[in-house]
C-alpha cells in the first residue's frame, strides 16, 4: 500500500466511525475529557493542513484561516486556540462544513502524496496517520460517553456485541529474575516515548494470563470494596467519596439487577466479559483486596508474549516517565508526548476501540489515574 | 381569533424564530443561563402536554415518558429533571424528534381546543401562551449568545438591521409628588406578580424620555468609568475585576475601532443606537457617573405614558419583591413567579426580542444584576 | 459626657468584650464573614488614626506604616489591603501589639479631643463612635461563631444567661392604611442610609407584638419544613440542599434532644426563648408555612411603637435600597453604606449584641439573605 | 542513650523549635499544606498516647477524649477527625493546654519506657520518634511559611544565617552502567517504603557534585524561563499561568533588586546560596533549559557517596512508587506510607530543616510536584 492509499484508508475509517451518528451527536462535550466528534474530525484534518500542506505545498490555499484557532488542541507553538472546555460550546463550523474541510484537505494531500516522499517528511506524515488513529480510538470512547450518559440511552449499533468467549484460562505465568531489554527496536513507526531501548532488572513475578472479568469485580463490590478505605490510595478514597463512586462507569443497579450500557444500548451485565471502564484507583483497590498487585509496564512488556492482549487497555503500576536517553523533537512535533510525563499512569496493550495495527508490545498509553471513559481493565500480578 | 388559532399562531412563531438555524445551533449551551434552542422547543411543548393534555384528555398517550425528565425546567412539583447546566450535554432527543414531538402535541392541542373551554382551564392555557412567548424571547437572546460568542461570528440574518432613527428627544418629563396606583387592572391576561394593584407614594422626579445610546456610553468608557470604583456597588466592582469587564457584551475593540456583534454579524458600532447588553451594575455605574440614577419600577410605571418604550428592557433600581396581597397559586403553576422574589432586579418595558402583545405597562421582568445577554438598556432619572 | 469621655467609654467597651478571650481566640477566621477579634480591635483603631489623627494632628507620628495595609477593610480610597479572607492567616501584629496600638491612638485621640471640636469633624468622630459600636456587635457575634464552632464548645462566660421571660403576648396589632413618614428626623447621629425622610403609602396590615420563639420554630421543623420546597424561595431551597441545613445555626440534635450552643456553652434548648440565628430564607419559609409573611421595613418602622423590640435583629421583606434623595458623602466616608445597596435584605430592631444607644427605630441594618451568625429573628405579619 | 532518654531528647527538640514563637504564630494555617504549629505539637503527642499508652498502659487515663477528634491527621482507622483545611479555624485547645497535654503524656511515656521494651513495641515507639522528627521538619517549614507570608515579614531568629560557603565544586561525576542494589539494608530504623532492597539496572550517567545556586537560577529567570512553555510540562505551564509564578517562593523583586525572606527576615538575595523553595515543575524546567535533566532516585542513591548532600531536599525524576515486594503493615501504622504512592514525586537527601540523624541515603521523601514550601533544590544530571 503506497502512502496515498494508506492515507485514504485511515481517513475513511474516521468517517466510518461517525457514520451512525445524528448531527447532534457530533456537537456535545459532556465532560472536559470528551471532545465533540466534529472536533476530532476537524482537528485531525488541521494536523495535516498545518504540518504537511502549509509548509510543503507552494501556493496552498488554507481552507479557512479561523480553523487554526478552532482546531488546534494543545500545541502552544502554533498559536492561540479555543480552550479545551469550550469545544462543546461551538455550534460552528457545522458538521457539513467539517466534512467539506476534510474533502478539501484530502484532495490536496492525495495529490501531494503522489510524488516521492522520504525522510523526515515521511516520518511526519506517518506520525499524522498514528495521530489520526489515536483520535479514532477517542472518537469511539467519546461517542460511548455521549450516548451512554444520555438519559435516553440511545444505541450506536443495535447489533453490536462484544465476544466474551475469547478468554484465556486464568493461569499465572512466572517470569524469572534478571536483566531484560525494554523499548522499541526496529525500523517501523513508533513514538518517541518508546525510546531508548534500555535494560531493566526485574525480580521474579507471576502474571495472570487472563484479564479480570465482571464476575470477579462483582465479588469485590459485594464484599464492600467501595466502603473499605484500606484497599485504596488516600487520593483514591477521596475520589470515591467526592464522586460517590460505587461501581464501574456505565454500570447501573436497577431493581436489584446489574445493567451495563453498551454500544447496543442498556443490557443485562455480561459477567463473563472482561471488566472495563475502571479508574487506576479502582484497579489498585481491586488488586489490594485480592492480595495481589498490578504489573509494572516493564513486567508487562516482558511477559506479554505469554498471553493474548488487546481487548482492554491495562492499567500498570508504572508512572509515565521518560526512558533513559529520551529526548523530544524540536518544534510542535516535540510537544507530542514529553510534556505529559508527570502525574499520569501508563497503560499497556490495546482495546477493542484501538485501530488495527496501531498498538504494539512496546506501546505506552497514558492517562490520569481517575479517568474511566477508556476501555480500561485489570491484569493481576502476584 | 379563537383559542386554537391563537395557539397555532404562537406555536408557529417559535419555529419561525429557529428557521435560520443549523441543526448544530440547536444543541449547545455555552453558559448556564443560555439554554439550547431545542430545549426551549421541547420545554414549551412539555408544558402543554403536562399541564393541559395529560390531566384533561382522557386516554391521552404521552409522546415519550422520558421527556418529562428531559424537559422539566424548575418545577419541583413535577418530578426529577436534568440539571440546568447539563442541557447542553444532551445530543438526544434530536432536533427532528423534537419537531415530531411538537407536531404530535400540537395536533392533540388543536383537537382539544376545538371544544368550548373556560374558567381556570382557559387561564392555564393562556398562561401556556405567555410562557411560550417568554421562551420566544429567550430563544432570540440565547441564539444571539450562541452565534455571537462563536469565533466565526456567524450571522443569523444577513439583512437584519435595527432602526436607530426611532428615538425620542432626550428630554426629561417631571412627575409630581403624590399617591399613585400601581399594578395590573383589567380582565386580560397578566401574571400573578402584577397584583395586587395598590397605592404608592412618589416624590417628584424627572425622567428621560429617551434611552441612553451607544455614544453616551462610550463617553463613560472613555472617561475611565470601568477603572473608577467610586461609580460602582462593591459587588459590581468585584464583578468588573473578576470578569475583566471593560465594555458591554458583544462590543469588540479591533485596531482601535469599536465593533458590535449583531444578528447580521460583526459590524461597526452604531453610535446612535440605544445601548444594549449591559448589567444592572453597569447601568448603576453609568447613572452615578452622570450624577443621576435609575428609576424605581413604580416611577417607571407612572411615567411610561410620557415616552415610547419597547426597544430595550430597562433596568430599574427596584428589587423584585411581592406586591401587597400577593399570593401564589397552588401546585406547579404557583412555582411560576413567587419563588424568584429574592436577589433579583426588576426590568420594565420590552425589547426588540419580546413578542408582540406580550408586554404591557405593568409587566415585571426580573434578572440577576450581573446578567447581560438580554437586550437591556438604561433610562435616567434626576 | 464630653467627646473625650464618650470616646474613652466606647473604646473601653470593645476591650471589655474581649476580656474573657484566650490569645488564640483573637486570631482565627473560621469563615470569611467572621473576622478575627484582633482585627476588629485594630481596624476600629485604624479608623481613628486614618480619618481623624493623620489629617488633623500636625506632626502626628503613625504607629506603624504597615498597619494601613493590615487593617483597612474595604475602603478602596485608602489604598491596598489584606484581602478579607486572609485576615485569619495573619499571626502578626500580635494581640499585645494591637493593644499597644490602641493605647497609642487613644492617648493621641484623648489629647486631640480636649480642644473644642465642631462641624464636620465632630460628625466624623461621631461616625467613628458608631463605627466602633458596629464592630462591637460583630465582635460578639464573631466570638460566638469562633467558640461555638469549636469541637470543644468552650464557654465565653459560664454565668451568661439570656432572659426568656421578657416576652410580649403573641397579639397582633393592626395599622391602618394611609400615607406615613419614614426615615430619620432630628439632629442626633444617624447614618446616611436613614435619609431622606419621605412619605410611603401603606396598606392595612396586622403585625405580631412578639417574636417567634424556639417552640414555634420546632413545630416548623417537626412538620417537615426543611423537606418541603413549597415554603422556600428557589435559591433558599438550593441553599438548604447544598449546605444540608435542617435547623438554626448552633442547634444540635443529640440523642433525640435539641441542644443549643450559648455563650455559657452547649445547653438544652430553651423553648421559650426568642428564635435566633436563622437566615432570611428560613424566616421566609417559616412565615410561608404559617400562611403569613414578614413585614416590610416601612411597616416595621411605623408599627414599632406598639411593641418592644431589641432582643433580635428582625429580617424584613425589604431589599436594602436607597431612600428618595439619598446621596453618599464624598471620599472614603462615602463608601460607608451606599455601595452595599444591592442583593441584601434590611433588618430592623437591635439584638442583645447591639451596644446600648446604638440602634433606633429608623436604623437600617443589612445582610445577605443566607447569613445566620447574627442574632436574627422573626416577627410575623398577616 | 536508652529509650526514655531518646524519647525526651526528641520531644524537647519540638518545643525548642517553637520557643521563638508568639502565641498567635501557633494558631494560623495560611494554606492547607501548612498546619498550625500547635497542631503539630498536639498531633505528635496524640500519636504516642493513641498507639503506645492507650493499648499498653493498664488504667491509663486519656488526657481529653475530644483530642482524638482534634489531633488525628489522616488515620482512617482511628475514627473521625477535623478536616485538614479546618485546623487553622480552631482557637482551642489553647497553646497552654497543648503544652500541658505534652507534659502529661511525656510523664506517662517516660514512666512506661523505664521497663524493658522490645520487639514490635520498640519498633512502634521508634516509628513514633521518626514521626515526631518528620513533624519537626514540618514545624520549621510551616513556621517559615506563616512568618514569611505575613506582610510584616517578622523574623524567627534575628541572628539566623545559612552558610553559603559550604559548596562543592560544580563537577560532574560519572557512574558506570550496570546492575546496582537499591533500598535499605541493616538493622536500624527505616521506613517500610525503603524496602525491599532490590536490583536495578542503570545506564551510564554523569551527576553534578553541587546543587544549583541562586545565581544560576537567576540566569534562567533573566533568560525568560518563566515565559517559554517549551521548558515546561503541560501541567507545569498551567501552574505557572494560573498562579502567576515568576520566581521561587520567598523571592521578592523590590525596586529592581532581588530580596529573599529568610528566618532572619527579608534580606538581599544571597546569590551563592543553594537555590531553595522551588516546585518540581520549576526544577524540571530549569534542567530542560540547561539541556540536562534531574536524576532518578536510583541514580541519586548510587551516586550519593560522591558528593555531600543535606542542605536541600532534591527533586528527582522518579514517581513515588512501591519497591518490589513492598507490603504495608496491618492497622493504623500501615497507613503511614503506602497509601500516598500515586501522583507524588520522590525527593532525596535532607534539608537544613531535617533533624540530625533522621535522614539517610536510602530515605525517600515525597511531595506533590507543585509544592514549594519545603527547602527543595536541584541537582543536575547529563
UniProtKB/TrEMBL annotation, chains A, B, C, D:
<dbReference type="InterPro" id="IPR051043">
    <property type="entry name" value="Sulfatase_Mod_Factor_Kinase"/>
</dbReference>
<feature type="domain" description="Sulfatase-modifying factor enzyme-like">
    <location>
        <begin position="169"/>
        <end position="304"/>
    </location>
</feature>
<keyword id="KW-0408">Iron</keyword>
<protein>
    <submittedName>
        <fullName>Ergothioneine biosynthesis protein EgtB</fullName>
    </submittedName>
</protein>
<dbReference type="InterPro" id="IPR042095">
    <property type="entry name" value="SUMF_sf"/>
</dbReference>
<dbReference type="InterPro" id="IPR005532">
    <property type="entry name" value="SUMF_dom"/>
</dbReference>
<comment type="pathway">
    <text>Amino-acid biosynthesis; ergothioneine biosynthesis.</text>
</comment>
<dbReference type="InterPro" id="IPR024775">
    <property type="entry name" value="DinB-like"/>
</dbReference>
<feature type="domain" description="DinB-like">
    <location>
        <begin position="7"/>
        <end position="135"/>
    </location>
</feature>
<dbReference type="InterPro" id="IPR016187">
    <property type="entry name" value="CTDL_fold"/>
</dbReference>
<keyword id="KW-0560">Oxidoreductase</keyword>
<dbReference type="Pfam" id="PF03781">
    <property type="entry name" value="FGE-sulfatase"/>
</dbReference>
<dbReference type="InterPro" id="IPR017806">
    <property type="entry name" value="EgtB"/>
</dbReference>
<dbReference type="Pfam" id="PF12867">
    <property type="entry name" value="DinB_2"/>
</dbReference>
